[in-house]
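To: structure subgroup
Subject: Chain for Friday's discussion

All,

I'm putting the inputs and outputs inline so they're searchable in the archive.
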Amino acid sequence: MTKTHVVTGATGYTGRYIARRLLEKGHGVRSLTHHPDRADPFEGQVRMMPYHFDSPDLLARSLVGADTLFNTYWIRTAFGDVTHERAAENLKILFAAAQWAGVRRIVHISIANATADSHLPYYRGKAIAERHLREFRPSYAIIKPTLIFGHGDILLNNISWALRHFPVFPVPGRGDYPVQPGFVEDIADLAVRMGEGDENVEMDAVGTEVFSYSDYVKLVRRAIGAKCVVMKTPPGLALLGSKLVGAFVNDVTLTRDEIDGLSAGLLASVETGEAVLPTRLTQWLPENADGLGRRYASEIERHYR
């Protein structure tokens, strides 16, 4: 049966893949976005609307008639007056609007290992947003990836860009902390399947391969044919290097909180039996390496300019 769904951030990364899957299934799709006037990648098939977090009534009206809300809204790092606490509060407003509008189900893309007592604002804010969602009436699915890869991924592209352009790639600390990448199209497929259900579910959504971060970077280096030296460095020195690169490209490259999250192993699942994403990075990389890192991808440019 054809239905109408709302996807937040359909011109972004994960949201774009979810919207494409829904369109392929013949559903109607709307999107909430901070950038309703950007170039339309869907050739008019998706109606773009602003978020209106400051006007809950308008936000709720934009959700009327939607069966499922697929939420990908979040921020990687605080920028201007937009903090992780503010983002969590925005999601509370969004979930309340969905309840008012009669949305049947919410599929929420969160993050693995989010806890309300985390000292890292990103993970703490994600946990608070999950708690807000549980308080509202629509049934929900909370999908918790770790590290996402695929076409359009900023992190993997910019690691590749650095490996192509610099003689040394600094790995903070020992580099033995785990990462467990999952393919963005698998996550989109999972989100759409979860949208069809009715029961409340929460799951880590991760790939079947686990690497140390150092081995992950070396895997990418080998795939793209770079000659860069991957070197373990003190975290403070790695952070300094990232700030210098960030100043050069006018962007946020790697933050202290992200180094702490990496070092704590938060980019791998601690759950068991949750490796639900079949595409392996070691399969995908050789077929797609040539296009990685040819140009720098700006986080600030994508989300704030």
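Points worth raising on Friday:
The CA atoms of residues 34 and 48 lie 9 Å apart.
The longest helix spans residues 84-101.

D.
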